[in-house]
Structures are given as C-alpha cells and as structure tokens.
Specification:
Helices cover 60% and strands 8% of the residues. By secondary structure, the protein is mainly α.
Length: 208
C-alpha cells in the first residue's frame, strides 16, 4: 500500500520525537524493564519505523536545514498556474502500518490502565521518558496521517515521476489540485484539532 507524506515540518517534527526519545529509549534503554511480549512488539514497530524513515528525505530523520530538505523531493509539484506546491513523498507502507498500530495500541492501553490501577511497567517507563511531550499523542497523529487514503489521481501523478529527479515538473490538473488541497487540509486538521490558531499557522506552511 502506497501513501503520500507531505513535506511538512510539523509532521516531520513528530517523526523525530518518535524516533528519539520514544522508540530508541524503549528499545535500548528500558528493554529489560518490559515484558518479553512488550519488548518484541516495540522491536518490530521500531524496525518498521526505521524502514519508513528510509523512504523519506532527511527532514524526517535528522535536523536538516529547510533549504537542503526541500531539494530532496525528486520532482517539482505545480498547480495549473505554475505555482509550486508542497512536495508529497511516496512511501510504500505495506504492513508496516499494522506493526505500528499494534505498538500504539499497546502503549495507549498501558496509559489507560495506569489511571485505573497499579502501574504497568510499560506505563511507568512512558511516564519517565515523556517529559511533557505527550509521545503517545504524537504517535497517534502520525498514524492518522499514515492511514489517510491517498487520493487516486494525485497518487497516480506522483507515482509516475517520484523516482526521477528534481528537474522533473508535475503539473496537476483541476481534479488533482482538488485532491491535493483536500489531502493537505486533512493532514493539517489531524495536527490542529479544534485549535484555530494552530490550524492557521500550520496551514500557512503549505502552498495551496
């Protein structure tokens, strides 16, 4: 299954905090404090996460200057007037999303159980590494983006040119433009929720 990932610094920031501190800490620093089943679920998800990151530009797995990151899209996306649009990265998600969902549900359940009774060791670990970031909330939002159905015509346009080079232009037709705007609006909505200020500032990062 192929999904489209916008070249969005807000989304990229959530990718980064899931890599470190969430997955790295759980897998390498707290592994011995978890059950064998929990450690295995985290290990499988971490591997899938790493595979997804390798399909994305450096913005999503390193602190890279915006100018450099913006040159890694592999093509130039334009609307019918020639205005440059936010790049959409093509990712072959496959069953990796399922691995991540299994891990997310385990982490979220540990959080919920800790409210009702004695702490699960996993919940205790999450509280130690969270540091007010709400890592599980970041995980949920990123998964929501990964689950978004890719608009068919937009996906087809990107698939035709994504492996080529930065000099390859992609000009969207009116239907593809509509799909592009609806898709980007959906991503912004996932991260902003009902916060109008967050929505406005996030949406301003997009060309649409």
């Amino acid at each position: 299954m192929h999904v489209l990932i916008p070249d969005d610094p807000v989304l990229a920031a959530s990718f980064l905090v899931l890599e470190q501190p969430l997955f790295h800490s759980l897998h390498y620093l707290y592994r011995m404090e978890l059950t064998a089943s929990q450690a295995n679920t985290i290990g499988v998800a971490y591997e899938s996460w790493g595979q997804l990151q390798q399909m994305l530009p450096s913005r999503f797995h390193a602190q890279t200057p915006d100018a450099q990151a913006s040159e890694e899209g592999g093509y130039v996306l334009e609307d019918s007037t020639g205005q440059r649009l936010t790049t959409l990265h093509l990712v072959d998600a496959g069953r990796r999303i399922s691995d991540l969902e299994t891990c997310y549900m385990m982490l979220r359940q540990a959080q919920l159980d800790s409210v009702r009774g004695p702490l699960d060791p996993l919940a205790d670990v999450l509280r130690e590494i969270d540091d007010g970031i709400n890592l599980v909330g970041h995980f949920r939002r990123v998964l929501q983006v990964l689950r978004l159905p890719s608009p068919p015509q937009l996906l087809a346009a990107v698939r035709r040119v994504a492996p080529r080079g930065p000099a390859t232009p992609v000009t969207l037709n009116p239907e593809q433009e509509r799909e592009y705007r609806d898709y980007c609006e959906a991503v912004v909505g996932i991260f902003s929720g009902n916060d109008i200020f967050a929505y406005t500032t996030h949406r301003a990062l997009y060309s649409m």
